[in-house]
Amino acid sequence: IALLWAPHPFNSRTGQTRRAIDVPLVKSWYCEHCPPEQPVKVRVSYQKLLKIHVLNSLKHRAPKALKKRYLFRSFRATKFFQSTVLDWVEVGLQVCRQGHNMLNLLIHRKNLNYLHLDFNFNLKPVKTLTTKERKKSRFGNAFHLIREILRLTKLIVDTHVQYRLGNVDAFQLADGLQYTFAHVGQLTGMYRYKYKLMRQIRMCKDLKHLIYYRFNTGPVGKGPGVGFWAPTWRVWLFFLRGVVPLLERWLGNLLARQFEGRHS
To answer: In this predicted structure, what is the pLDDT of residue 264?
Structure first.
């Protein structure tokens, strides 16, 4: 019923549809002039966002007509997969747990019993390592990038778990999400393993300036925090979408080397 009364692109399931991720909430703000009394960093943020928008629209091509392949439908056709309905916070916890198991399997495959991976995905040595052990315990970018992505996932899932437990209210949840997405550079070390990611981090910073200086005006002052997480959330979702082929290649190579050894 809600679908029936929704405004145009949201009221249909087929044809030209829009998802939450497709809606740029604050685009109209930076397509206009920045208010003149704002500090320099905010004006620069407006310019940067506008620049990215212009470049995207110049490069934009009409989407190719594709024969849609549905992953889940093809999975359902085989005998290896069943379908079930889960609450998505549970799914998030499962992802974190399975990810932890996966990384642990890799660590123990290399016999590195002196490295401990905690549930927040910090990799720490349990004793002072000898030079040989240090050399043996070096991992490549594939392992570390996955570790950091899982760590970001864990942060997001944990905020929702706190909300479900009733320890924080909806405003604190929204504010926490906004903070997390805007400060990925401080909270994780992802950029160490894929430096191109600085683009996303900078874009989130620009969006943060844009939003803060709209909300924290007048009597609000510095404000208790802005729970406006959708724009920065989009940036990271698009990043995850784009990094999938790269990770497939990296992890494919890593696992091939683990199981088959190097071919000299």
So the answer is: 63
In angstroms, the CA 159 to CA 170 distance is: 11
User: Do 121 and 147 contact (CB within 8 A), yes or no?
Assistant: yes
Instruction: Round to whole Å and give the CA distance between 231 and 20.
Output: 10
Residues 6+ apart with CB under 8 A from 251: 142, 146
Supply the pLDDT for residue 1: 66
Largest interatomic CA distance in the chain? 69
Q: How many residues does the chain have?
A: 264
145 three-class SS: helix
Beta bridge partners of 18: none
Give the integer Cα–Cα distance in Å for 46 and 48.
Answer: 6
Q: Classify 140 as helix, strand or coil.
A: coil
The three-state secondary structure class of 117 is strand
What tokens were used for 86? 């889960």
Would you call 223 helix, strand, or coil by DSSP? coil
In the beta sheet, which residues pair with residue 116?
124
Q: What parts of the chain have a pLDDT lower than 70?
A: 1, 3, 264
Q: Comparing C-alpha atoms, which of 86, 69, 85 is closest to residue 77? A: 69
**DSSP code, position 114:** T
Residue 149's pLDDT is 96
3-state percent breakdown (helix, strand, coil) of the chain, nearest 5: 65, 0, 35
Helices 198-215, 40-59: crossing angle, 10 deg rounding: 120
* Beta bridge pairs of residue 123: 117
- What single DSSP character describes residue 123? E
Q: Cβ distance 177 to 236 under 8 Å?
A: no
